[in-house]
Amino acid sequence: MPRFRAILDTMPAYKPGKAVLTADGRSYKLSSNESPYDPLPSVVEAIAEGARQINRYPDPGCAQLTEAIAQRYDVPVEHVALGAGSVTVAQQLFETVGEPGAEVIYAWRSFEAYPLLADLAGAVSVQVPLADEEHDLDAMAAAVTDRTRMIFVCNPNNPTGVSIRRDRLTAFLDKIPDNILVVLDEAYREYVRDEDVPDGLDFYRERRNVCVLRTFSKAYGLAGLRVGYLIGHEPVAGAVRKVMVPFAVNHLAQIAACASLQAEAELLTRVETVVKERTRVREALIAQGWTVPPTEANFVWLRLGERTMDFAAACAVEGVAVRPFAGEGARVSIGDPEANDAFLKAAAAFL
Ligand SMILES: *Cc1c(COP(=O)(O)O)cnc(C)c1O
């Protein structure tokens, strides 16, 4: 038998959101926080044009996209690092700090990739339970030891949707020694409407140990192409670039991301529609009698405890795929109005 790393025996497997299909053909995938919209014609055109060059390797330095992101956020190009989806950038971050004994702190439950990436990188996960569906920042600061190398803060938090306000994040960052890297994972930043929820880039601009993770997968609708990025100071971005697998961001992904930045206004109009649907869905759920934490992301969270898997099954009957976490709750993405109505119907029937 080939021998593998012992950690592989205990690692949680990543469970991607699945689709369901009813006998009469209904299928609403609200399990992966994707954009419900088809890609923009201008983006599809750019991809089709780029397809003519795919006999060549992609630009390993992603120069054009790096430049476009740097311009968009008014940061130096040296402060940008790209990856095949921000989950890969997160993996690169774990690789830069992971060694025996290195501790990484993050809230739990949060993004399901964190424990997996920590294990893979040989780092120790320090999971700090959420308090009232929110990051318990006091407990997270108290969990810092001299072995702590990195802290992930997911804002808004996946899967609860709850966000951290500016004053609380400032107070937290003030407590963290500046030799610990703080990663603000802002995969859902474009959906945030609460003005007290800070733009992580403001913290990056003031603090050399803070970096921000963003993605083209959610609001920009490029989940299928895999491209995400980090903005951080040169030592951070440089380290992340160093551990990148060569050519990880493919040619079509680079082209589509550039085209999406050019079509940003159009894409953000779609985001606004999703935000309105989010309000409608949350209010309808509350009117039905559910408790729904305030969400700044493109999903809602229902804490169902032992009823979680029954709830997911009840949604599947209506063709609605949700993301259940057994014994905890279900995360439901905001889709188009028809999908959301199907979900609301299932939720009402379940009660
Ligand atoms: C979806 C998500 C990501 C990343 O997605 P990619 O498709 O890999 O860019 C990162 N962080 C959080 C919290 C997410 O929910």
TrEMBL record:
Aminotransferase class I/classII large domain sequence ranges: 29-345
Cofactor(s) named in the record: pyridoxal 5'-phosphate
Tree of life domain: Bacteria
Catalysis: reaction(s): an aromatic L-alpha-amino acid + 2-oxoglutarate = an aromatic oxo-acid + L-glutamate
EC code(s) of this entry: 2.6.1.57
Keyword match Transferase: yes
Modified residue annotations for N6-(pyridoxal phosphate)lysine: 218
Alphabetical list of Pfam families matching this protein: Aminotran_1_2 (PF00155)
Record keywords: Aminotransferase, Pyridoxal phosphate, Transferase
InterPro entries: Aminotrans_II_pyridoxalP_BS, Aminotransferase_I/II_large, ArAT, HisP_aminotrans, HistidinolP_aminotransfase, PyrdxlP-dep_Trfase, PyrdxlP-dep_Trfase_major, PyrdxlP-dep_Trfase_small
Alphabetical list of Gene3D superfamilies matching this protein: Aspartate Aminotransferase, domain 1, Type I PLP-dependent aspartate aminotransferase-like (Major domain)
UniProt GO MF annotations: histidinol-phosphate transaminase activity
Keyword Transferase: yes
First-tier enzyme category under EC: transferase
Stated family: Belongs to the class-II pyridoxal-phosphate-dependent aminotransferase family.
Cited function: Aminotransferase that catalyzes the conversion of aromatic amino acids and 2-oxoglutarate into corresponding aromatic oxo acids and L-glutamate.
PANTHER family the record matches: HISTIDINOL-PHOSPHATE AMINOTRANSFERASE, HISTIDINOL-PHOSPHATE AMINOTRANSFERASE 2
Record note on quaternary structure: Homodimer.
Protein name, entry field: Aromatic amino acid aminotransferase
Gene designation per UniProt: hisC
